[in-house]
Amino acid sequence: xxxxxxxxxxxxxxxxxxxxxxxxxxxxxxxxxxxxxxxxxxxxxxxxxxxxxxxxxxxxxxxxxxxxxxxxxxxxxxxxxxxxxxxxxxxxxxxxxxxxxxxxxxxxxxxxxxxxxxxxxxxxxxxxxxxxxxxxxxxxxxxxxxxxxxxxxxxxxxxxxxxxxxxxxxxxxxxxxxxxxxxxxxxxxxxxxxxxxxxxxxxxxxxxxxxxxxxxxxxxxxxxxxxxxxxxxxxxxxxxxxxxxxxxxxxxxx
Length: 254
Hints:
Layout: H1 9-14, H2 34-47, H3 51-65, E1 71-75, H4 81-86, E2 95-100, H5 103-113, E3 122-126, E4 138-144, H6 152-165, E5 166-177, H7 183-199, H8 204-214, H9 223-232, E6 237-244, E7 247-253
Parallel strand pairs: 1-2, 1-4, 2-3, 4-5
Antiparallel strand pairs: 5-7, 6-7
C-alpha cells in the first residue's frame, strides 16, 4: 500500500492487518482494547471510503485555518494518524491536543508520534467526550468519525463547548457516516458501502459481526441534522467538502 502523506512507507507496511471480526468475539458491542488499536489503521483504511483523500483534505483545510500560538484539538484522535499527517504541514508553534477515551488508542498514538523528530508540543488526554472536555485557544478542532459515537442526548452540549473554545475565524472539521431520510436510498447506499468493504477484502461474516457490534453504539445523523446541530451550537457557516454515498465531511466556521 502507498503511505498517506505524513506516514512513512515503513510505518504503513508495519501496520497489523485488521482481523478483529474474522473470528467470533464475546459480547456484542464494539470495544477498544490493544487488539483493536493495533489493527485500527488498517481497519479505517479499508472501511472508510477515500480515507486517505479525506485525510489529505483535512490537512489542507487545517493548514489554512491553524494560527501560530494556538491549539489544534483532535477529538477522538484514535492512533494519531491525522496528527501525524498534520505535523509536517502546520507551523511548529501550533500545539496539538489529542483526545480519546481509549488508553490503548493513545498508547499507539504516542508510539507512532514519538518516532518523529519534531519540536511541536503534542499532548494527549484520556477523556470521555460525553463530558465535553475543555477546549481553549483553539484555531482548529477535528472530529473525524467521532461524533457518531457520542450519544445524541449529549451532542448539543459537546458541540457548544467546542464552539465556545474555538477562536474567532477558527473551524471545526467534521467527518461522519450518515443515515438518509429516504429509506430506499438509505438501503442502496448501505449496500454500496458493504460492497466496498468486500472489495477491500472483508468477508460477509466480518461485515455482519461488525454491524452487530456497532448497533446502538454508532448512531449516525442525517446531513441536515448535523448541519442544524452545528449552526445551533454557535457556528456561523457550514459547508460540505466531501461526500461519498453515506459518508460526509463538513467544515464549520466560528
